[in-house]
Amino acid sequence: MSSRFSAGLAKLKAESRPARSVSAETPLGTTPRAVPDEEPHRELGTAGTLVAPSRRGKKAIAAYFDPAVRKQLALLAVLEERTQADLLAEAINLLFEKYGQSPIAKA
Predict the structure, then answer these.
(1) Residue 80: its pLDDT value, please?
(2) Does the reported pTM lie above 0.70?
(3) What's the CA gap between 107 and 41, in Å, rounded?
């Protein structure tokens, strides 16, 4: 089975275009990743991974909760036919309004 995998991998490598090295600063302890020439619009994150277009210019906010909170959020998202990110943005905006801030959160 691994020989089929190796053959497929070799075929993909042979068909792919040569990649150019990324010349931007690379964080210490990481290896620069190659970016194909036909996709210069893609950006690399701090860990050298590709950044999805929907995440460009945004920062993650995370917190730890009991598993029941995660499950309830997921169920509410299904019931309301909305994404969890939309519901979290709504909750953050309500928090901002409570403390006299502008509701600026967008999912």
Answers:
(1) 97
(2) no
(3) 22
